[in-house]
Amino acid sequence: MKRPAWGLQSKFIGAIALMLAIVVLVMVLLWNRQQASRHEVSEATRESMRVLLADRMRQDGEAEVRQLADALANPLYYFDLDAIGARARAALRESDVEYVLVYDTQGRILHDGSGDIAAYGQPMSDALAADIIAARGPHARTLGQLLDVSSPVMIGDQRLGGVRIGYSLAGMAMAENAAMGGLRARIDAVGRRDLAWLLLLCAALATIALAAVALVQRLLVQPIRMLGDAARAIEGGDFSTPVPESARNDELGDLVRTFARMRDSVARHDRDIRRVAYSDALTGLSNRLAFRELLDKRLRELQGAGRQLALLFADIDDFKRINDTLGHEAGDEVLLQVAGRIERIVGGHAGAEGCVARFGGDEFVVLLEAGHDSAGTDVRALAKRLAEALVREIGQPMLLHGRQVFLGVSIGVALFPDDAEGASMLMKNGDIAMYQAKVAGKNCHRFYSRSMDQAVERRMRMEHDLRGAWERGELSLAYQPIYRTRDRVLVGAEALLRWQHPEDGAVAPAVFIEVAEQSGMIESIGPEVLRVACREAAQWRTPDGAGEPPFVAVNVSPRQLRSGDLLHQIQAALLDSGLSPARLHVELTETAVISDEAHATALLARLREAGVRVWLDDFGTGYSSLSHLRRVQVDGLKIDRSFITDLLRDPDDLALTSAIVAMAHSMGITVVAEGVEKQGQFELLRDRDCDLVQGYWLGYPVSADAFARLLD
Ligand code: C2E
Ligand code: MG
Ligand code: MG
Fold first, then answer.
1. Which of 283, 303, 356, 530 is the most interior residue, by most CB within 10 Å?
2. How far does residue 403's CA lie from ligand 3's centre (Å)?
3. What pLDDT digit, counting tens, does each position of 648-670 carry?
4. What domains can be seen in the chain, in order of their start residue?
């Protein structure tokens, strides 16, 4: 975990180091200052000592010179050179005396204390000579390392000459040096003591600073760092990092405890939010987000591990119908029951580990893996077994507010790593496979295969192209004649939708009507078909032998039936075309009617009240139940083509067809046979009293114009 580069501790150490440095600097300055002043003191002392010594030397010199002058007064008066010499030599023998000169009033040298008196009679010619000769009293002067003291020699007021003694100052310098040596030694000792004190002071300060750093580190930096680390961990979503316990009774202790409480509360909120964000509110299952995370995690773990995984994408068939007809509460109830069933089935599936999620709406997803105890089990086989079980179990009737409801489920299966390498791809392919299960007739399962991609693409293109096809004039109606079996008189026609695709040409209705149905486009195309069929039929004239003009039978999709707008659409089409209601027949599939019996029954009753005939199309392919026909009142039923095809070969089909005709007639229902392709079929149907027939043997679907000509 990254720490700030210039942390609290470094800052604090920096500040203390700076303070220490300043203190040391002040100490050094102080020490320097002391050194300087010690030097000044010793210099001043030396100076005053020198003055003092020189003064004393001069006084001593002057006293000695005066004594000598007094002693020389008589010898000089009598000019007794021997006595002068004796006195001078005695003086010269004194310590420090460099020279002794006795001179006359004119300054000529009379004696210098030497034996031969080499300078005798010579005048004194040094710089002091003139002053000395003129002086009336003692005279002292310093000349370099010499002190020159002189005094005139007098008897009474008469001046006889003078005497001069030169003292060497070296002795004095030595004395001075000796004295100064002692002084300096003492000053140095004081300096050393001062230095020692200063160093001690510095050391004490440094120790205090170190102690302060350690204290700050322990009391402030460490706990704050730990809090920082914990905060960063929490920021990263890890709530398990321990927050240091603190028994401290200060602000920081309070902060640490508050922080721990805050962490707990954030963790709690996080858990709550995750629960809400990751689960489906209705069923309590994982939602898309949670599932996606789980899938990503599992795929990462499985990558390269050689293990397989299956994704089952389940979508309830026609779930919208439940919502539309029974209300959303019933829809929720269905979802809950389905979720329960899926969980139960997945949980009870031996040898597999599964996770169930709801993707919103009526989509459920199952992630399936071979269990650890059954390693090596083929996931494909497992998925197949599970998918079959799901289709079977969800297909069991469901009790909803005291009513039995039948549901189907379409399941797409995609395998990892065979069908996809990543989560998104896996989910997309599962979706594609599910879609193919729907296309294949729903209530079944399909495994994903590469060819499905093309199928899906084709289908999506078709959906795209179909949009607006009616407005572009690509859709039209063909009419297939329907004859009365008894006398083969043309009595009506079935309107069949045709799509002329600008590039692909004619598209099979079975294909594009399925697309229109699934995409919901049939809800806009259906009313147009009704309108055009009625308008064109209104133009038809009565053919020979028929008492009235032919009827038109219009196919109505289950979706139109459910939309609740059908009655209004039919009335509008009739009003617009002026077609008599009796000439309009509506073809509905059995399944459309059965799936919502109550609603359909009411609607059909109102249609029939309005005079429109209602036929059941494709009779025999769905849940054909004759008791059903009693409840749902219809005017006719069209026996499905599949029965007619085998009529000549299969005695069962013949028996069934005969039974349907007989039973329908007993209820006053007209029977139409569709898909008559052979004369034999027609004759057989005529023998069995089938009312109406339709098929290629009698007539192909033709354009509106061609059909109008047929009537002529
Ligand atoms: P359907 O209502 O059962 O229509 C009869 C289908 O059987 C028509 O196919 C017709 O051409 C075909 N057929 C008629 N006689 C014979 C025969 O002797 N042999 C064979 N093999 N087939 C014959 P088509 O036109 O391809 O329509 C297929 C289905 O599309 C229709 O089945 C109907 O369910 C649906 N359909 C057609 N037009 C419309 C429409 O305008 N609205 C709706 N909702 N569905 C339509
Ligand atoms: Mg039909
Ligand atoms: Mg049919």
1. 530
2. 30
3. 888 888 888 998 899 899 999 99
4. 1-241 (3.30.450.20), 245-277 (no CATH), 288-448 (3.30.70.270), 462-711 (3.20.20.450)
